[in-house]
Amino acid sequence: MKNSLSQLQSVRKRIENACIAANRPADQVSLLAVSKRHPAEKVNVLNALGVSDFGENQLREALLKQKDLQHLDLQWHFIGTIQSNKTRDIAANFQWVQSVDRTKILQRLALQRPASLPPLNICLQVNIDMEPQKAGATPEQIMQLAAMADGLENIKLRGLMAIPKLSTDPQQQHASFRKVRHLFDDLRKAGHDIDTLSMGMSADLEIAIAEGSTMVRIGTDLMGQRSA
Fold it and tell me: Looking at the domain covering 2-223, what would its CATH class be?
């Protein structure tokens, strides 16, 4: 518990300092704890310290963890690549899906979201630097997906998620994050009621916040080294 507290305090201080540097209120940026390949007990400890949002990218692992922690009031985010045969379980067991990048997946999630549950929060994943090895829609496809999302029931379009190209050049990092923010702004200008810009991880959260991120996804710096 003590180690988890110090790690959480360190991450929250980084977020606070980044917001101060960007002249933004600290409450504009939320924390998503990336709990993939971490045991349920670590999630339990962080939740006791005030963290409620957790990200998973492997469905089977996530479902087992959710079963163990069903007594807690948690917000589960699916952040991994989505296969068509997994959409039903994702739609039924998560509150957020941040990695939607194609029409088929968007339609299946909307169709398969149980009517008894609140609308599923959706972030569209954009491959902003057009890296062939990464998932994500092109900026042009994002505009089309957003238009479709607003016409579907059982889902709520919340914004964008991106994992920009790794770089040791701060100017390049700023440029990539800025492109995502501009796309986000374009969506809002087009009339989409969105509020979430999920970008920035342990290594680059300060730059992401400077460029407008509203949610940072933190794994190792918050939860320690992952199991194999």
Answer: alpha beta
